[in-house]
Write a structure and sequence with these properties.
Layout: E1 2-3, H1 7-15, E2 19-20, E3 25-26, E4 32-33, E5 36-37, H2 39-43, H3 46-57, E6 67-71, H4 74-89, E7 96-102, E8 111-112, E9 125-133, H5 137-148, E10 152-161, E11 175-180, H6 192-195, H7 207-217
Parallel strand pairs: 1-11, 6-7, 6-9, 9-10, 10-11
Antiparallel strand pairs: 2-5, 3-4, 7-8
InterPro entries: OPRT, PRTase-like, PRTase_dom
Function: Catalyzes the transfer of a ribosyl phosphate group from 5-phosphoribose 1-diphosphate to orotate, leading to the formation of orotidine monophosphate (OMP).
Pfam families: Pribosyltran (PF00156)
Length: 219
């Protein structure tokens, strides 16, 4: 796994508010932390996303990537830009960009290729892109999906690895992340911010849902 948290990349994240600290955040996993990676702040700025995706594409030989796959929603943007920069370096042919979607009903929440995209996977070299790796669970689903359709996963390229996700967590696929952050997180019952009465941030993360659930529990 490549880690190169150089000052320029960290500054790009910080300048748009993509790394926020000194607050009390609740993650989608239910764990708490004082730091939050606000990936949505990046997507507001096409120039920043473009530059970051160029860096995400750099480690790969353009002719060796047939299709870039990203999970919805952020992965759609990333797959387009990364494929764009791979195509700029290709001498012939074209790198395609597709995305995987989750089932809409309450039973099927697994990723799937819709819109006929599955036809472009078999026997192809696939690069999977993701914005933030936390547990690797979503990306592992996409890896399994690509393999199910006969594709060969060359690598995973991410904006940020905040969960120390390793190749073994994602089907033994090499990981390249622009930045890697080792964030201290806590279960609710051991969270020092909860114990100190630090207000939960309701603007970022799952703070509002956490507070709503607490209120319901105390009714």
């Amino acid at each position: 796994m490549s880690e190169h948290n150089d000052a320029k990349i960290m500054k790009m994240f910080a300048d748009v508010g993509a790394v926020v600290s000194d607050s009390h955040f609740v993650y989608s996993s239910g764990r708490h932390s004082s730091v939050y990676v606000n990936k949505d702040a990046l997507y507001l700025h096409p120039k920043v996303i473009s530059e970051l995706c160029q860096l995400m594409a750099q480690p790969y030989k353009a002719e060796q990537i047939d299709v870039v796959v990203g999970p919805v929603i952020g992965g759609v943007v990333l797959s387009q830009w990364v494929a764009h920069y791979l195509n700029q370096r290709r001498q012939s042919g074209e790198t395609l960009a597709v995305f995987a979607e989750k089932g809409s009903d309450s039973v099927d929440k697994q990723f799937a290729f819709n819109r006929g995209y599955d036809k472009y996977i078999a026997d192809k070299n696939i690069l999977i892109v993701e914005d933030v790796l936390t547990t690797g669970g979503s990306v592992r689903q996409v890896v399994d999906l690509v393999r199910h359709h006969g594709g060969h996963v060359v690598g995973i390229s991410a904006l940020c690895n905040r969960g120390s996700v390793q190749p073994k967590d994602v089907g033994d696929v090499p990981i390249h992340a622009l930045i890697s952050l080792s964030l201290q997180t806590y279960n609710e019952d051991e969270c020092p911010f909860c114990q100190q009465g630090v207000p939960v941030n309701t603007e970022l993360g799952k703070g509002r849902a956490f507070i709503a659930r607490q209120k319901n529990q105390h009714k």
